[in-house]
Design a protein that fits this description.
Helices cover 36% and strands 18% of the residues. The strands form two sheets. It has a six-stranded parallel beta sheet, with helices on both faces. A three-stranded antiparallel beta sheet has the order 7-8-9, covered by helices on one side. The protein is built from nine helices and nine strands. It starts with a strand and ends with a strand. Helix 2 (32-44) links the parallel strand 2 (21-26) and strand 3. It has two domains: 2-170, 3-Layer(aba) Sandwich (Rossmann fold); 183-268, 2-Layer Sandwich (Pantoate--beta-alanine Ligase, Chain: A,domain 2), CATH 3.30.1300. Bound molecules: pantoate. The site of pantoate has 10 residues, from strand 2 and helix 6. Pantoate binds next to strand 2 and helix 6.
């Protein structure tokens, strides 16, 4: 595995590759969720590039940029053992200059739900994903469904900017109790971990309601809120189509049910695609 820390090192390393390139962008602190993306990308491509970059422009003032979990040594080992060809770990100076040209999130879909709670987050996320996709020269890039709105916006960026890369949607990975894996789960103590299960429980409740024939969005959201009493604060419960347009009724095959809530220190998100 080649570790590239600068753009030149990345370009030099890419010279050694021929054939399709699978790409998995990450912010490090790799867990089984990342691993499943890496393994899928490894299987489906001749070459595999993974990036680890804690992107400052997608963190808001007061968020956990400095405290964001970092475990470089373990991450390198995981990548090496997973058959990664190039691990790209740039520093901030390689990725940004002071007076940058910026792309922004769309005015509506980029500023609802996560975008409303974290205004500007998606501008920074799209900015770095555009850079990383261009740098990697990926044929296919792999993203988890857990960050559903991020994924929808990346797909919109690829479409709107006619970018020549296939975005592959990967399933959410959960622990044995149903908690969706996230690097921020390390902030949870035992009691909070238990209480955090309310998020996946609320999605199970939504599934039950839909399977019983309930398609009305308000009724499903009410049913979900009823099982979220263990969280410290519910930020939103929402039901949208795959492009994040609001829905009045669930459309089977084109619906995402989302929940965001605070449990202890971290803000957790989870969702269900139906
Ligand atoms: O989902 C993430 O880890 C990040 O938002 C991403 C896509 C790596 C961009 O920094």
């Amino acid at each position: 595995m080649i570790i590239a820390k600068t753009i030149d090192e990345l370009y030099n390393a890419k010279q050694t590759l021929s054939g399709s390139i699978g790409f998995v962008p990450t912010m490090g602190a790799l867990h089984h969720g990342h691993l499943s993306l890496i393994q899928q990308a490894r299987k489906e491509n001749e070459n595999l590039i993974v990036s680890i970059f804690v992107n400052p422009t997608q963190f808001l003032e007061g968020e956990d940029l400095d405290a964001y979990p970092r475990k470089e040594v373990a991450d390198k080992k995981i990548c090496e053992l997973s058959g990664v060809d190039i691990l790209f770990m740039p520093d901030i100076g390689s990725m940004y200059e002071s007076d940058e040209l910026c792309i922004g999130a769309p005015a509506i879909r980029g500023y609802i739900l996560e975008g409303e709670k974290r205004p500007g987050h998606f501008d920074g996320m799209l900015q770095v994903v555009m850079k990383l996709l261009n740098l990697s020269g990926a044929t296919k890039a792999y993203f988890g469904k857990k960050d559903a709105q991020q994924l929808a916006l990346i797909m919109q960026m690829v479409k709107n900017y006619f970018m020549d890369v296939e975005i592959v949607l990967c399933e959410i990975v959960r622990d044995d109790k149903g908690l969706a894996l996230s690097s921020r789960n390390i902030y949870l103590d035992a009691d909070e971990k238990q209480r955090a299960l309310a998020l996946s429980r609320s999605l199970k409740r939504a599934t039950k309601l839909v399977m019983a024939g309930e398609l009305n969005v308000e009724a499903i959201k009410k049913g979900m809120v009823n099982v979220l009493e263990d969280v410290d604060e519910i930020e939103y419960v929402a039901i949208v189509d795959r492009e994040f347009n609001a829905l009045k009724e669930v459309k089977i095959g084109n619906t995402i049910i989302l929940v965001a809530a605070w449990v202890g220190k971290p803000r957790l998100i989870d969702n269900l695609w139906i």
